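Person: At home tonight, work slowly through the protein below, taking as long as you need, and write a paragraph about the fold.
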Amino acid sequence: MKFEIRHLKSVAVVTCLIYGLFLAEQTFAAQECHITLSDSSVDFGRVMQPGSNDPASANAMHALGNRIVSLNASCPQAAKLLIQLRGAGQGEQFRFAQQGQVSVILSNASLDGRSVNLAKVQSIGAPPSTSGSSIEAMPGDRVIPVSGGLPVEGSTLSMQIEFKPQVPMTELRTRDAKTLEANLTFQISSY
């Protein structure tokens, strides 16, 4: 995922480009799987420079608004699927710009048309953690679809991904054009 901010004087234009990487491994090695995103370019529109010049607010975070993208993955054979999220970290969230962060929430998952929960796992084959219909993903997380607390197999996975970027006020206060970026990769494989 790539976020970009172009800031001219007191106006910023924010664009979000999201890249999904679907790797076919193990069971799917000889056959191709496919991943699509509902929109690979999400526009955050114009962001006005916040008006406060209070030094105490300099380190305050400025939310850029939430955006939701649908992810759909399809494979020719049913298998247990593992979603891995990669990207630079900022605390327990993904880094956005130099000191900003972006929260990533996965929700509304379905596998072969059946509603499923999502759970994090430490490694392939490890028991899943507490599952839910919505989970916050962090850098390096491994997420699996589950039903009744157990991993499930399927060939078509769909889910919504919500992005919540925010940056420190200091990164928005500039007279020159400025690009702020974050890169996030989704990798989906069978196990």
Summary: DSSP finds one helix and 17 strands in the chain. The chain has a mean pLDDT of 77. The longest helix spans residues 169-172.
